[in-house]
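Researcher: Checking consistency across runs. Here is Nucleolar protein 6 again:
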Amino acid sequence: MVIGSFYQVFFGQFLFIRLDISAECLKSLHEVSDYSLDAVDEKDRMRNFTTIFMKHIHECMGERFDNVYLKAQQCRKPYTTSFLIGFRIGKNWSNPITVGPLATDPTAKVFRELWKGKTQLRRFADTRICECMVWADKSSSAVPYSILQFIVVNHFNFPLECISWRSVFPDDFLSSRDVNSKITSAFASLSAILRSAKSLPLMITNIQAVSSYMRDTEPCASDVVCSSTWGAIENDHRLPIQRNIPPYLSYVDGLFLLHYC
């Protein structure tokens, strides 16, 4: 579990997507002059495409990552070109809003054109009124994926299916975000019950969780794991041998500060 937390903390900062450009998409690129400018062959056109594609990524979501790279990948599908795009995510990676310039700023028009006129005006606590692109009601790891979908569909006329997430971990290695959220909510409810308890010899003045769940770095939310085998057949008789794997239950550590009443 400690090793898993280590990988979650360090490798969890990197996310990858795969971009598959089909033959139909490649054909559409040939019809756009920007991709054929100074292009002698298909390799030059793809170089122009990747330059423009990365430019859009920086313009649309540059504040969400610290670094990004693009690398060509081998693809088994005929007439398909594939790329792997890696992100070193930043603190604003899952921000539900892309904040643009002030509504009165001359660059506001450029921002609206970048987002194809789908922006909204939002007023912030410091009285600023800015052009914004709203993706969700709250922070979500799905927001960057929605932005990438917007880029490939609205700027390149590619289908949504051409991009897909790739992970460093197996699909069943990391726990769902909902698990940590439920544990955090349960701990908060327990804390409220303990704080409201009366007729205790000591007064609870502080309750603090010390757990990887609360830091959102727990890779595997454990369940009860049991397995049984029915033994082997010997001399036409099955021996009823049963072996149970001891259940493993993880726990949430907590610190309680008690004072005399």
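Researcher: Does this match what you'd expect to see?
Model: One thing to look at in this run: The longest helix spans residues 42-61.
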